[in-house]
Design goal:
The complex is a heterotrimer. Chain A is 38% helix and 26% strand. Chain A is of the alpha/beta class. In chain A, strands 6-7-8-3-9-10 form a six-stranded mixed sheet, with helices on both faces. In chain A, strand 1 and strand 2 form a beta hairpin. The longest helix of chain A has 18 residues. The two termini of chain A are 30 Å apart. The radius of gyration of chain B is 21 Å and the shape is globular. By secondary structure, chain B is an all-alpha fold. The N and C termini of chain B lie far apart (50 Å). Chain B is 78% helix and 1% strand. In chain C, the strands form two sheets. Chain C has a two-stranded antiparallel sheet. Chain C has a two-stranded antiparallel sheet with strand order 2-3. The N and C termini of chain C lie far apart (51 Å). The chains are: A alpha/beta, B mainly alpha, C mainly alpha. At the B-C interface, helix 5, helix 12 and helix 14 of B face helix 4, helix 9 and helix 11 of C.
Amino acid sequence: MLDVHELTTTYGPVTALDHVSFSAPKGKITAVLGANGAGKTTLLRTLSGLIRPTVGAASLDGTDLVRTPAEKMSALGLAHVPEGRGVITELTIEENLRLGGLGRADRAKPADIDRAYSLFPVLGDRRNATADTLSGGERQMLVIARALMANPKILLLDEPSLGLAPRIVAQIFDLLKTLVESDGLTVLLVEQNARSALSIADFGVVLNLGRLVVHEPADVLAADEKLRHAYLGF
Amino acid sequence: MASLPLPLAKVGRSTLWQSTLWRHLLLAVAGLVVVVLVLEGTSDFRNAQLAAMAYLGIAAGGLTVLTGLNGQISLGHGAFMAIGAYTTALLYQGTEPVLPVLGVLLAATLVALVVGAAVGVAAARLHGPYLAGATLALAIAVPGIALFFDGVLGGEQGLNVRLPEVPGWFADILFFLTAHDVSSSKYVAYIGWLSLIVTFVLLANLSRSRVGRIWRAVRDDEVAAEIAGINLGRARVLAFLVSAACAGLAGAVMAMAVRLTAPSGFTLTLSLTLLTAVVLGGLGSLLGALIGAALLTFLPQVVTGVGADLGLSDLQSAELTPLVYGLTMVLVILLAPAGIVGSVRGWWRSRAEKAHKPA
Amino acid sequence: MQQFLTTALTGLTLGFVYAAFALALVLIWRSTRIVNFAQAPMAMITTYVALVLIDAGVSYWVGFVAALVAGLVLGAVVERVFVRPVEGKSEINAVILTLGLFIVLHALAAVVFGSRYRSFPAPFGLHGFQAGELRIALTGFGIFTIVAVLVVMGLLVALFRFTDLGLKMRASAFNAEVARLLGVKVGRMLTLGWALAALVGSLSGLLIAGGSLVHPSYMDSVVVYGFVAAVLGGLDSPAGAVVGGLLLGVSLSFVSGYVGSELVALASLVILMLVLLLKPGGLFSHAAERRV
């Protein structure tokens, strides 16, 4: 569903992505793993149109992504939850969610917001509070809910577990798995916490210094001790 | 300075500094020769124009150091010129001059410096648009003060400034060198240019010295500068009062050249015009400040002439000049933010790099 | 007592105009982090547009609306053409750019419309009314001023609070990158923000001109007072702009009435410095930094 071919992105003299090619199949969770600075965030930012690649192609169900500006991604069905979560703290929870629905081609209905609250009850309790009152885990739920408001075909998540307690991480990952199974959502999950990511992922892609070094089913990756030690730190 | 014992580690640097000093002094002497040649070879009208270029250059020099080297934007330097000018006017109010010319110049510079220090202390914590807004308020506030205290400061009509008399020794030296007499207005032009040369040498040395490097560090990265032990506030205040002093000196020369100090001579336009000169020439460059001052002095005639050719009325043609300034400023910021000097230097450098690249 | 009342009322009316101008500055600051010093000559030019139309025989109200529309267009054009290239870059560049525009618009107005003082009509009475012994210095035009500013502010609040467009504009101002990812055309929102700000600026230009004299420099001091009012309330706070404007208007009116009109600019400078030194975020600042 997501096809990436020889994608290369440079920042001046630094090559952050080096001819990366892979496919993320529909309805599955593909984890993107690797050390700090491996190029994971750059990959997501290139796919979502925030950065233009130097060379290469990427397409979503056949629609070209490389020449599409970031503003049009939502309408194409690509939702990107950036590094740092991207909660707009000056807006209320409900406003954040409403905002997520505005990028859709069809109008979002109040029912969509209600669905978000049923998935994440803690958000519903405080819907008119400004988003800066939320804890880290709650914020992560908010941005996922916000991304879902656009009815995306594919969800790009950048390090959702960052700064969160293991219990909350498990909660969120469980929810993610449920969404994939119930809605047929495709997920590209960038994570430094490889162990947790591999526990819910179907496939794993490992980047090292901008190059793609491994592309295996998740269980194969998790079982290969040498690989794990070399690139994933466990 | 040479009499102080120097620790060994500083010897190398001090020699370099001294050679910079010699270089600047050499340039100053060369400049002086050029000034004499030009002033003696041109008419009284041109002399008056050149006097204007001199005082604009002094003010612009101070401003370019403040904005270019230290990153503080000031829209209020017209106010400091007003302070210098009014001090000068007041000192010349009596029937006999209270101080010789040099004394008047120093007094005006000092008053502006003190006020500049006060404003600088208040402004040290401001940056960007806040500083611009505050100095903008200063620019429109100071003329109001002159109007309020109209008893002493002459109100709307302002104060007349008597031209200083040409001292005998000066006329003698000049006659000896050039066989020409010195008219009062030529004398003022000399005062202006001598002041400019002295000021520029001082500014150039300051710029190359440790102080200059501190200013640049504060401009480029506050946090890093603070970590390196630099007192941000002190550096900023110093830059501010130096530039205010320059503006004060410029105002003093302006008072002598124009022979009148009135609130109408120190409008917001003056401050903005100074900024234009500095931006066009290139922020931080003294040469740029000089170029900017030249443009400010000689461009209006050219532009007004074009206006007349285009069939505009006199008043309209007069407005073409600020129109050109403003347009140029906008275009420079959009297309060549480094100004004339910066762009030329950049072009030079890229040519040199291309020449050294392997084929 | 009479003088006190007159001074206070005059200050209040003027304060509303400063509030409107401060609001224009705040709108632009929030969306692009730039102080639009050129807002003053922009408002001056749109007022001249109205004046030219009115002098040609058109009714005051048509001229009024024309000025507001001209403001919208001018704001959009200035943002798209001149400001877009410097957005997000060094602060000094943006300041110099708006100052350059300030100078250009000033000179352009002088060339096109002339520098002489021209009178601008007022659609409502310019005299106060009597209440027994006291003269209430609230003119018909003054009441119109207050009402007009309140209406415009109300409309803006409604726009930002209750509409999708307003939500998009706020999101663009708070976090442009996230807004882009959510499908908001941030560039267009910024242009719209500048257009609306210029409309509010035009309104204040018209209100100052009413019953008074117009010339290319007539709005120059307003940009300083508007800026001080905005800083007083907090550059990030629209409500602050209003309160700041009112406070400043009344304070300056008292300075003018009891000390001397020549010192009003100095008074505004003193107020500005006090605010910046004591409470730099303004009266309405919550947190110092934006929390992420």
